[in-house]
Amino acid sequence: MKLVTYLHGGAERVGLLSADGAAVHPLPCPDMNTLIESGDLADIAARAGEPIPLDAATLLAPIPRPRQDILCLGMNYKAHLEEAAGYNAEAFAKEKPVAVYFSKRVSEAVAPEGFIQSHRELVERLDYEAELAVILGKTARNVRASEAGDYIFGYTIVNDVSARDVQTGHKQWYFGKSLDGFTPMGPCIVTADEIPFPPALAISAKVNGEARQSSNTSLLINSIGEVLEEVTAGMTLLPGTIIATGTPAGVGMGFDPPRFLKPGDVVECEIEGIGVLRNTVK
Ligand code: MG
Predict the structure, then answer these.
(1) Rg (CA), the chain
(2) Ligand 1 centre from 146 Cα, in Å?
(3) Ligand 1 mean position to 74 CA, how many Å?
(4) Which of 5, 20, 123, 197 has the greatest number of beta carbons closer than 10 A?
(5) Is the pLDDT of residue 191 over 90?
(6) Omega of the bond leading into 187 within 30 degrees of 0 (cis)
(7) Surrounding residues of ion ligand 1, Cβ less than 5 A
């Protein structure tokens, strides 16, 4: 199933995309967090309403207001680790293949086709990061890597927009990752049953139509299973938790000279089977 959050008639709704992607069936549930926490997707989907054309609705981020900060992986593709260390070795060099965890505050995720805020008064080095995001469907504690797939509700795309000057200008990345308008998400959640675990999906990003990132989610240094096993050994993760699994090589800071974003730029993040997340820098 492909699940979306959308605006229709001034109301925010949750829906199920039709097989051809041209229509949405409203679901009898107030929002995506409630749907995930219910643990009752099959029953709720069985009560889907009559379809409306997608053209008559406005897509929002599938989880517009995450209940908690996004749990993020840094430096989780080898080629990206190398390009980042080349940009700033002090900030990004990583000697051992241990997972780098950080978090990203998201008061409101940016909708598909919505605007990335450039914060020109604060940010000079604005960058994009296409990422596969994992959404948990149940409480996760002491999860074994081999069972990690059972905890996943679905997958979406997140653009982990980053202010490189703010990110490296402080001891922690939190501020430079968490500005308003820094988390485009969508266009939908693909439920876990539709993607064999672990996901091996083509992932890419374009800026103004030019290919920048191109990789595959099978190339994660720290796999989803390893991450869930490690984190839940000491930290309970709740249903609706979003884990951004890291970005491949080809971000703006990886070029020589770097190619940062500016107002008017269009960023398209694509993952096979999920779709394209397209946003314009404002
Ligand atoms: Mg990232």
Answers:
(1) 18
(2) 25
(3) 6
(4) 5
(5) yes
(6) yes
(7) 129, 160, 247
